[in-house]
Amino acid sequence: MMMSDGVSGVVLDASFLTDLGRSYRIEHEVLADRWSRQAVSVSVPQTELVLVERDKADQARAALELLLSRCGPSVLIRPLDMAAVAAVAATMRRHDLDDIATAHTASLAMSADRTVYTTTPDRYLRFGDAIEVFSLG
User: Fold this and answer.
1) How far apart are the first and last CA of the chain?
2) pTM for the whole structure
3) Among 40, 47, 59, 128, which is least packed, fewest CB within 10 Å?
């Protein structure tokens, strides 16, 4: 999976957030610095954050602290509000999903041509070319 050089926005999923909060990797620093320099919008779906918080509360906080310290106001927690509910439901129907977090992440990526950052790229295979996925593996 690849990432274009002209990324204007990224969506971080639970696996990426867990990895970010669990272990220091130079890749995290490089990516966060790049996003900050290029004024990239960093979206964190609330549904993905809940998955991390449920299993690894300290990691969720550590990941958000790193993102906020590096990228500041360009980090946006994307709620599953009424506007998002319609998009998520449509994504679930269109791609035959039963995972609301994956659908939320994908719908955010598709709606604004954002790249999904993950450590589990297989989660997004069913979307084909509809979304761009970058994986740290």
Assistant:
1) 11
2) 0.89
3) 128
